[in-house]
Write a structure and sequence with these properties.
The complex is a heterodimer of chains A (549) and B (327). Chain A is of the alpha+beta class. Chain A is built from twelve helices and nine strands. The model of chain A is unreliable at 1-12 (pLDDT under 50). Classes of the chains: A alpha+beta (549), B alpha/beta (327). Chain A binds chain B through residues 284-285, 287-288, 291-296, 298-300, 302-303, 307, 346, 350, 355, 358-359, 362, 365-366, 406, 409-410, 451, and chain B through 13, 15-16, 18-20, 22-23, 25-26, 56-59, 61, 83-86, 105-107, 109-110, 112. Bound molecules: adenosine-5'-triphosphate and magnesium ion (MG).
């Protein structure tokens, strides 16, 4: 049913769609945010890199300055010139170098050119290795060189001693100059490389998230427009549906109006078909019943004709005999006599005179039976009577029995328990129809090839006529018991039952303000009990007449 | 004086019994019974040549009685008297081969006289055949297996497989299945019209005709009767859409139709019918005296298709055309 589908569609589909959209949005924003985060990481990283590289170059320069100033100091000592200035320069340079090297190696803060710089230990293993090597070299010569720089090593020393101290320092510095210089060089280069690498990596990530965010965005756009279009579709669909429903409702209205008018028509038709059904039953029953007496009456007529011919021949022969005797022509007498005897022989052997009389009598009976059948038919249908009569119910049942004779005959014996003078105010033809239908059903309920009993009981109480029709047929299944009075309910094969019988019964009993009850035992039999008031109220009469009109 | 043939009338209405006894008593010794059980007793006691029973009786239906009668006295000719509302119940008996004639109420007395006369003659013939068969069996028990059983169900086993089957009045699509199935054993032709059918029967030795009975303008029973009058050994099977009781009765009474089949028919059942029909046809050919329908036509020529009927003339024309073509 479309009524139950439509609301479901509106309730669940948008929720699912919104959920989907929210998901896209979250994805999109996450991607965009990741681009920003990456950017920040990138800038801090490159700042760090720049600091490191800056420090590394400072370290290299400090080393070169230290070496140069030491050489100057050596020259000054040798020349006996004052050495303090050179040593002071050396002192500053070597301290710088030491601080930078240590900071680069282990991390920490240092002050360069009056700015404080915080460094972390290098994470990259290759760069760390270079600085570690550098540090190791430096660690070996660090103590004496620092002492020299502070001047403590030279204090109170002779020139020779000073020369020796400076010389050994210079020896270390010069000996390791290449290694340190190259190390710092390499370190700078490495740092530069690392920084480029990282930047490249971060940039790739950036590009990837940018591209995917664009993709998500595009997809979102697509989905949204698609679902919008779908929504559109659904809406137009719904509109169509609503229009269709409106049309259906309009059609249904017409249909129901038509039904209503049809119903009235059907009602009249049903009454008509009620009459037709009973007519069919009657014709079948009657034709069968009439053909039997008609058969033998017709046959009797032919036999009588034949016998008549024989008898009249014999009579002729005997008259001739009489004539012969009278006329006295006695020479022919014997022949005439023999002729007469021969002519009469059949009459004697077959006792034709009395037999003819008998079959004439039976023909009369046959004719009477036909007449009776016809009058019964009249009685049964009472087409001439549409008004209420105080009718003999027993006689009505008997007339129905006669019509049903051909159906009942080889199926059942009929047992009647009639109370005397059972009469009721009724529409006799209609009640007869009730009896016929009940009797036909009863006979049909008895299985072929078996013989059952139909028991009919009639009695009276103060206000009602009570009629009971019981059969020993196959019974009615409990689940069918409720349905048997519905029009067109039948368990009989197509062509055998229309299923109208009991619905007609029900209607007629209703018209008589009576009631009908059924009791049935599957396999044992069925009993219908009818009660109708002995006097019909004026009200009921009016209703019935309206129904019949 | 010659002893009278004995016949048995069964009806629950005594006045019918009385009336019919009067009609028949000059020529037959008439027994009568008011129900089936009494009838069967009488049948055992007396040499009854013809039994006629009413269909609708308490205790036992007429067709049931006749079925029993067939067992007790197979050579007795069985006739069923039917009334207005019996049509449904008699359909069961149409294909059972129990009944020689159906007579409707109210009957025509002359018709009854004829049926009894014919019945007695056929009965005597059957008895003669049975005796002859017994004598032959006694002489050469294995040589011939002619077993004339009553009337419509004479089975004579003849080791001749091939027969000629002709379908009349069907659109070819309707019967292709059957035709294909039968072609393995028989020569099968299917024609749509009666004219073509006449040509076919003139041309080839048709043994079985499977035909509809409802043709546009022609009475199917009459058409088949025309062919049977000219070719008595042809066995007819009616295969049609509707079970029409009056047509079925006519085809038994006038044609001695072998089977009246209502579509749809199972293939196997159909093949069995055709097998039986061809067997029967070759029996008729080899021993025409076993063809009771032919005998009854000979005994009462009025049942033959009239010499100058339109259909008969058509058939003659087809035969003549064929002869001309050959010479
Ligand atoms: N006496 C009964 N015994 C058993 N079943 C019965 C009896 N009377 C009625 N029925 C059941 O009730 C059904 C309806 O009966 P109803 O008379 O209305 O229609 P029908 O007999 O089938 O057809 P129709 O009367 O038109 O020929 C029957 O088909 C049958 O199953
Ligand atoms: Mg009914």
């Amino acid at each position: 049913m479309p009524e139950s589908n439509a609301p479901q569609l509106t309730a669940t589909a948008p929720a699912r769609q919104y959920g989907e959209l929210i998901l896209y949005a979250v994805l999109f924003f996450a991607l965009v945010a990741s681009v920003f985060v990456l950017n920040i990481i990138l800038s801090t990283q490159s700042q760090k890199d720049a600091t490191q590289i800056f420090c590394a170059t400072r370290q290299q320069r400090a080393w070169q300055k230290a070496r140069k100033s030491l050489e100057n100091a050596q020259i000054a000592v040798a020349a006996g010139a004052p050495v303090a200035a050179a040593l002071a320069e050396f002192n500053g340079a070597i301290k710088n170098f030491d601080a930078v090297t240590r900071a680069l190696h282990t991390g920490g803060t240092l002050t360069l050119d009056a700015t404080t710089i915080t460094l972390e230990r290098i994470e990259d293993a290759r760069a760390a290795h270079i600085i570690d090597t550098l540090y190791a070299i430096w660690s070996k010569g660090r103590e004496p060189l620092l002492q020299l720089a502070t001047g403590a090593a030279l204090r109170d020393k002779t020139i020779n001693d000073s020369l020796a101290a400076i010389g050994s320092a210079a020896e270390f510095v010069v000996g390791n100059d290449d290694a340190v210089f190259n190390g710092t060089q390499e370190f700078i280069v490495k740092l530069g490389q690392l920084s480029t690498e990282r930047t490249a990596r971060l940039q790739t990530l950036q590009v990837v998230s940018l591209v995917s965010s664009i993709l998500v965005f595009l997809f979102m756009v697509f989905r949204v427009s698609f679902s919008l279009r779908k929504q559109d579709g659904i809406i137009s669909e719904r509109t169509e549906e609503i229009i269709a429903q409106r049309d259906t409702i309009a059609q249904e209205k017409v249909f129901i109006e038509k039904l209503l008018s049809d119903l009235k028509e059907t009602q009249t038709q049903l009454i008509q078909s009620e009459k037709m059904a009973s007519l069919g039953q009657m014709v079948a029953g009657l034709a069968h019943e009439v053909n039997t007496p008609l058969g033998f009456v017709k046959n009797n007529i032919q036999v009588t004709e034949r016998n008549h011919a024989i008898i009249s021949d014999a009579l002729d022969a005997y008259m001739k005999l009489g004539d012969t005797i009278e006329s006295g022509e006695l020479e022919h007498l014997e022949k005439v006599l023999l002729n007469a005897k021969a002519a009469a022989e059949k009459i004697r052997t077959f006792d034709l005179i009395s037999k003819t009389k008998k079959i004439l009598a039976s023909s009369v009976v046959g004719a009477e039976r036909i007449q009776e059948l016809i009058s019964n038919l009249k009685n049964f249908s009472r087409l001439d009577e549409t008004s209420v009569k105080n009718a003999d119910i027993n006689a009505g049942i008997d007339s129905a029995l006669m019509i049903a004779e051909n159906v009942i005959k080889q199926k059942a014996d009929v047992v009647k328990h009639y109370a005397p003078s059972v009469t009721a105010e009724c529409y006799p033809a209609q009640l007869n129809q009730v009896f016929l239908n009940l009797l036909t059903n009863a006979a049909q309920a008895i299985p072929d090839g078996t013989r059952g009993t139909i028991t009919i009981t009639t009695r009276l109480d103060n206000t009602n006529v009570i009629l009971n029709f019981a059969d020993t047929g196959k019974g009615i299944a409990p689940e069918n018991l409720k349905k048997i009075f519905e029009p067109f309910f039948t368990t009989k094969p197509i062509g055998q039952g229309t299923g109208l019988g009991l619905s007609i019964v029900y209607k007629i009993i209703e018209r008589h303000q009576g009631s009908i009850e059924v009791k049935s035992d599957v396999g044992k039999g069925t009993e219908f009990e009818i009660r109708i008031p002995r006097k019909l109220s004026a009200n009921a009469q009016l209703q019935s007449r309206a129904a019949l009109a | 004086m010659k002893e009278l043939s004995q016949v048995l009338l069964v009806d629950d209405e005594p006045m019918i019994l009385e009336s019919l006894s009067n009609l028949l008593e000059f020529d037959y010794k008439v027994h009568s019974a008011t129900d089936g059980y009494i009838a069967l007793e009488l049948l055992k006691k007396h040499p009854i040549k013809v039994i006629m029973s009413d269909q609708r009786m308490p205790k036992m239906f007429g067709h049931e009685l006749l079925r029993e009668a067939k067992k007790i006295s197979p050579n007795t000719i069985r006739v069923l008297l039917t009334g207005y509302s019996d049509l449904e119940s008699i359909m069961q008996s149409v294909n059972a081969g129990e009944i020689f004639r159906y007579i409707n109420k109210p009957w025509n007395p002359d018709n009854i006289m004829n049926v009894f006369k014919l019945g007695v003659q056929l009965h005597d013939k059957l008895v003669g055949l049975t005796a002859q068969h017994k004598a032959m069996q006694a002489a050469a028990p294995a040589a011939v297996s002619v077993a004339p059983s009553p009337q419509r169900n004479i089975h004579i086993e003849v080791e001749e497989k091939n027969g000629n089957v002709l379908f009349v009045g069907y659109k070819s699509a309707e019967v292709t299945e059957f035709v294909r199935q039968l072609e393995r054993r028989y020569e099968v032709t299917s024609v749509a019209s009666i004219d073509e059918a006449f040509k076919e029967v003139a041309k080839r030795p048709v043994s079985v005709i499977v035909s509809d009975v409802r043709f546009d303008e022609i009475d199917g029973v009459e058409f088949l009767n025309t062919i049977k009058t000219e070719y008595p050994h042809v066995v007819t099977v009616i295969l049609t859409e509707v079970m029409d009781a009056s047509l079925a009765i006519r085809s038994i009474n006038e044609l001695n139709v072998f089977k009246y089949l209502v579509k749809p028919v199972q293939k196997q059942e159909f093949e069995q019918v055709i097998n039986d029909a061809t067997t029967k046809s070759s029996a008729y050919k080899n021993a025409p005296q076993t063809n009771l329908h032919l005998s009854s036509q000979q005994l009462s020529p009025s049942s033959r298709a009239a010499e100058d009927s339109a259909l008969r003339l058509k058939l003659r024309a087809a035969q003549a055309a064929l002869l001309k073509g050959k010479s």
